[in-house]
């Protein structure tokens, strides 16, 4: 299970395995358009047994529209990946939260990720809302890093320490934001996904709280099951870990 969590965390850096053309029928259809994309390939990736695997591909020749059809048991994250050919561009992948039904992904060749508009998935809408709350905190952290760097250049130790303390508070805030969002959105499959990716190193009791808050349907779905398995593994590892003996002072307290 820890390998699954690692695979989720490394999602944006993952690339190619093999393609599968056996998805002619399914309960999910993903259509869209990559404006400006005239020739090349689009791949659809999925995490299978901790490995990113290309489950389908489509060759683009002139028409920038695309369509993928597949079967999924429950809402799940997939990755639409663009093969630009001979280019150093890193803007080649769109993560999207798929669920049974009809989905649309429209974007551009120039800004494949940042211009992407994904519709047709409630799970995607919830996850987008989470990313917005997280990005506000991350932006403040990035600004603080600049201020800390300038304080170092000025050799202003007092200012640097103050900024570092503020940075730590923002880290805690980002962490608590993820916890609160996951618990508040217990009906969404985005909640266990957030727990597995952004809270994987959280206290086991906290992960347990998130898990127990999830709706019955989400508990039956892919990420609900993975979160349950991950928590059980964490508890088993903690039970086997050597216990730290308290000092004589701690024992008296």
TrEMBL record:
Keyword presence, Transcription regulation: no
Xref: InterPro entries: DUF4369 (IPR025380)
Pfam families attached to this UniProt entry: DUF4369
Coiled-coil portions: none
Keyword DNA repair appears in the UniProt entry: no
All residue ranges annotated as the DUF4369 domain in the record: 29-127
Protein name: DUF4369 domain-containing protein
Lineage: Bacteria, Pseudomonadati, Bacteroidota, Flavobacteriia, Flavobacteriales
């Amino acid at each position: 299970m820890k390998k699954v969590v690692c695979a989720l965390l490394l999602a944006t850096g993952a690339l190619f395995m093999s393609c599968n053309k056996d998805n002619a029928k399914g309960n999910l259809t993903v259509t869209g358009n990559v404006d400006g994309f005239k020739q090349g390939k689009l791949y659809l990736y999925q995490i299978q047994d901790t490995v990113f695997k290309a489950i389908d591909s489509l060759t683009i020749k002139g028409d920038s529209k695309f369509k993928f059809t597949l079967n999924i048991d429950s809402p799940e994250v997939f990755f639409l990946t663009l093969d630009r050919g001979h280019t150093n561009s890193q803007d080649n992948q769109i993560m999207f939260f798929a669920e049974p039904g009809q989905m649309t992904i429209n974007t551009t060749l120039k800004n494949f990720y940042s211009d992407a508009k994904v519709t047709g998935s409630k799970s995607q809408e919830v996850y987008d809302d989470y990313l917005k709350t997280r990005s506000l905190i991350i932006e403040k952290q990035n600004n603080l890093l600049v201020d800390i760097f300038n304080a170092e250049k000025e050799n202003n130790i007092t200012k640097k320490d103050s900024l570092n303390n503020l940075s730590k508070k923002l880290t805690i805030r980002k962490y608590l934001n993820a916890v609160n969002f996951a618990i508040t959105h217990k009906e969404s499959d985005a909640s266990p996904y957030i727990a597995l990716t952004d809270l994987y190193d959280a206290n086991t009791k906290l992960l347990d709280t998130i898990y127990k808050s999830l709706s019955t349907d989400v508990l039956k779905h892919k990420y609900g099951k993975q979160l349950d398995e991950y928590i059980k593994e964490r508890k088993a590892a903690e039970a086997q870990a050597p216990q730290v003996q308290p000092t004589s002072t701690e024992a008296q307290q």
